[in-house]
Specification:
By secondary structure, this protein is an alpha/beta fold. It has 2 domains: 230 residues, Rossmann fold, CATH 3.40.50.11930; 152 residues, Glycogen Phosphorylase B (Rossmann fold). It is 36% helix and 16% strand. The chain is built from 12 helices and 13 strands. The protein has a 7-stranded parallel β-sheet with strand order 3-2-1-4-5-6-7, with helices on both faces. A 6-stranded parallel β-sheet has the order 10-9-8-11-12-13, with helices on both faces. The radius of gyration is 21 Å and the shape is globular. The two termini are 13 Å apart. The C terminus is likely disordered.
Length: 406
Amino acid sequence: MKAPKILAVASAIDLEFRYGCTPAWWHLWKGLAEVGVDLIVTPYRGKAIESPWWRTEPNPLYREAELYAGARGLAARLKGDTHVRRGEDSPEESAVDRATREVIWRYVTPRWQKHLDGIIERERDIAAVVVFTVPMSHLRGIPERLRERFGVPVVFYDGDVPMSLPEFGGMDTGFNYYHGADPSEYDLVISNSEGGLDRLRELGARRAEAVFWGVDPDLFAPAPVEKDKDVFFYGYGDKFRRDWMEAMVGEPSRREPEVDFALGGGDFRGDTGRARLLGTIPYNAFPQAISSARINLNITRRSHASVYASSSCRPFELAGCGAAIVSNPYEGIERWFEPGRELLVVSSAEEAVEAYRELLDDPAQAEELGRRARERALDEHTYARRAEQLLQLIGLERPAAVGARG
């Protein structure tokens, strides 16, 4: 059976941009290659980066996108900040947002239409187009044209639900996906959140399905390194999780001065107590950083933690490394891991301190907690499994199932 060919329009391929979904897309695309997909990736931001698992088409508006990003960065710096920030509760569109979208519709959208038309004409046998977290409104009208002209299904894959929904407004690093958008243009909208599906249907999605994040066991595995940190958390910013950063890092680090708390990442604007800041950790070194900590924290943003089964990458990555995981309350986390057996969930600073003491005083218990989490992740949550699910939802067959690739 011939490998199905998928054209992926990606928010970015370059990990330098620190977009939260980009590393996960790499793993999912690798999973698609492993189950026999011929994948072509073209980026909306940044340059096209090839890999052993996909081939690329260039970004047709690379220069323009970088100029816009530079102007946005300058606007943030003029305000004395690193990002142009939005409110955390139903942020309204500004006049600048609306004007920007009008410019995009006049200049960017037609050029992307021409770009995608050209790729499909050259390839001839594209089985589906999947848009990965590009702001939906920026491609307005394109799905209908592709479907009518080439007869291909067009899928939107939103890996940031519920953060991307209008009531949360998205990350400060990007756009609000759904202002000015029409989800009904797409044959299928895929979400990382089970609890967000009804909201996507309210916004107009004709069909919405959940595919959770997962883990690539080739990268996220226990590393043979010395444990030089007691409690470790890594993340990009504390938006929507500032209260839990205080409860799980700030306050416990003051109560337990002999415990070594370490934070990787940056843009922490709230209370981090006595925790030492490690800065950015290269993605390829992340498993070593996880493995070097006796306890790893999963501090999920309120947007995700409060909407049922809104998966984030972190618990799966930590589990893949066999980490002893302590998490803030997270609606639906039992869909993936069993609290008390495969990870611990704490509801206050007091409970966090108690959990840290228990695991630090009993390394064997911590090791067993991590072993069970890893076993569950390998059984149920690999990206190869997620890739198979994605193909089934799109309606494509897996060649590997009949021996084309293993």
